[in-house]
Design a protein that fits this description.
About 20% of the residues lie in helices and about 40% in strands. The chain is an alpha+beta fold and about 180 residues long.
């Protein structure tokens, strides 16, 4: 006899759209430097770059190691690889070691009148099957939303607020 209850284990996707009142070169130079990730990451995540002597310019195949505290007091190693770069268009980082079963993050930028449109798309899967899905419903989704909200605010502080967001654009994020 079947219980009738099923918790599917699936991939999730977060999209975040933000407009920045700066030129493409300035925005690209900021977002493509790993050391600036700390500026746009909430301090409660305990984010720390472990890799020593990072080059100033990202390149495909670059490995970066971090330490994060995603859950209160639980220190976690996170290793990402920069897998794709198209300068002043996008770059992709993928988790090699860390808290997710799969993590693929595309950072895309595009010059628009008055500044830059920046879109982040994160595709991810949690470990632990149905337990990971429960964690997603209880706190992971909320935590990722909070991180991207913090990033938008930090980018606004750093670059200013884009005044003329196109009517067709909906800034913010969504998780599927």
């Amino acid at each position: 006899m079947e219980s009738g209850y099923s918790l599917s284990v699936s991939f999730h996707q977060l999209s975040d759209l933000h407009y920045i009142p700066a030129d493409l070169d300035t925005v690209w130079n900021f977002i493509s430097r790993p050391e600036n990730l700390k500026v746009i990451t909430p301090s409660d995540l305990g984010f720390e770059i472990v890799t020593q002597d990072l080059p100033e310019v990202m390149y495909p195949g670059m490995i970066i190691e971090y330490r994060v505290t995603p859950i209160a007091g639980l220190r976690q190693r996170w290793v990402t690889e920069i897998t794709h770069i198209r300068e002043k268009h996008y770059f992709v980082d993928e988790q090699r070691v860390g808290p997710y079963a799969m993590w693929h993050h595309e950072h895309a930028v595009e010059a628009v009148p008055g500044g830059v449109k920046m879109k982040d798309t994160v595709s991810y899967k949690l470990p632990l099957g149905p337990l990971g899905e429960i964690a997603h419903m209880l706190f992971v989704r909320r935590q990722l939303n909070a991180i991207f909200e913090y990033r938008r605010n930090a980018l606004n502080e750093h670059f200013g607020i884009f005044e003329d967001v196109p009517d067709s654009a909906i800034q913010g994020h969504s998780i599927k």
